[in-house]
Amino acid sequence: MRKFRIPALLHFASALLCAAVFIGPAAEAAQMSTSIARPPKPLAKSDTKPPAKAPEKPVAKPDAPLLPASFAGWDSSAEPTPKPLTDPAQVDAGNAAALKEYGFSDALMRDYSREGDTLKIKALRFADASGAYGAYTFYRQSGWPKESVGTGAASDHNRVLFWIGNVVVDSQFSHISAMSGSELRDLAAKIPVPAGNKSLAPPILSSLPQKDLDGQTTHYALGPVGYAGSGGVLPPQLVGFDRGAETATATYSLRSGPATLTIIDYPTNQMAAAQENAISGYLKAGNTSQHPFTKPLQDSNPAAIAVRRAGPLLVVVSGDAITDDAQKLLQSVRYEADVSSLPGQPNNEIQKTAQLLVAIITLVVVMFVAAVLLAVFLGGGRALYRHLRGLPISSVYDEEFIRIDLSE
């Protein structure tokens, strides 16, 4: 009869282990998907009380009017319903060009009253939050006290300016009170804001160093009119807005004096490099009749004026700080290419698909490595076992024979 050999047992055990390695994760994944798909069994009333829901922050519907008829006791229902204004010249004739650069869409103006007091509100809507933030910094003057309304706010006596989403709200009280901030927060909750990328602030703001930054002095510009109107340091024609540039400017309170940091973001590194040569040449030439300095540059310490490039970013420092402090501020700007999702934003479908593919590839690689290690372990053990018995390492040379019992 044919002998039943130990190598056959080893082959059978190896097959069982490999099947366990591959089937185990699949079964676990199937169990997890089943548990996720199947809703949990509801608790009995005697088990526990349902958790109290946290109060939800009121959010206006996207199709809600830009300004409500009434809020926090202020009422304008007696007045005719105003019509939206789509021409920026009707909203602010002197700054219509700047509003166009920021992507002005439409505006609404309403007059409210309450117990003899009046409140005039002008709401300006833009294509996205970047344009709204830029317009907010254009109208907000440096030094205005910070207020807690919307995404960002500042006040000047009876005037309160704030922005939320892609809307800028300019309010003028006849009489300011301690409750004015709370009333405007109630108004901000009724203003419709967009979802998705249109609600994101300009990414260039993340490049501004936070140390010694005066947050109430930041200005964001998308064109030459807005840049010049918000106190830009460089000549607008030298920035390169026609090449798709955008700028962020802020003041820093350094030990040796105030300094102004200007960051210019270009679409490509090549554009930034070409513009760096033009700006560097302008600054090195000094204040001449052919290329006169702007007022901010004339008031700066000549030794502190410098420019450097970091990827597609151009960084210019000016002001009254000494050279060492200005250089430290200049070098503190870093550019890091990051393709990950922005904080607080859900991943889109492309990112989810990529993450799924990476997870599948990782699982396949892990299973393959586990199978190889298992095969090496079992094969090596078998070879060692045969070697200790004095047999060849491979079973290829084994001879099988049939024994016939002829004793009877």
Task: Give short descriptive properties of this protein.
extended, single chain, 408 residues, Protein Transport Mog1p, Chain A, 3 domains
Topology overview:
Layout: H1 6-37, E1 70-71, E2 74-75, H2 88-91, H3 96-101, E3 104-114, E4 117-126, H4 129-139, E5 146-147, E6 152-156, E7 159-164, E8 167-173, H5 180-188, E9 213-221, H6 224-229, H7 236-239, E10 246-254, E11 257-265, H8 269-285, H9 295-298, E12 306-310, E13 313-319, H10 323-331, H11 349-388
Antiparallel strand pairs: 1-2, 3-4, 4-8, 5-6, 6-7, 7-8, 9-10, 10-11, 11-13, 12-13
Helix pairs in contact: 1-11
Task: Describe the model.
This protein has 408 residues and is of the alpha+beta class. The protein folds into three domains: 1-26 and 357-408; 70-197, Protein Transport Mog1p, Chain A (3-Layer(aba) Sandwich), CATH 3.40.1000; 203-331, Protein Transport Mog1p, Chain A (3-Layer(aba) Sandwich). 35% of the residues lie in helices and 21% in strands. The chain has helices at residues 6-37, 88-91, 96-101, 129-139, 180-188, 224-229, 236-239, 269-285, 295-298, 323-331, 349-388; strands spanning 70-71, 74-75, 104-114, 117-126, 146-147, 152-156, 159-164, 167-173, 213-221, 246-254, 257-265, 306-310, 313-319. The strands form three sheets. It has a six-stranded antiparallel β-sheet with strand order 3-4-8-7-6-5. It is extended and about 130 Å long.
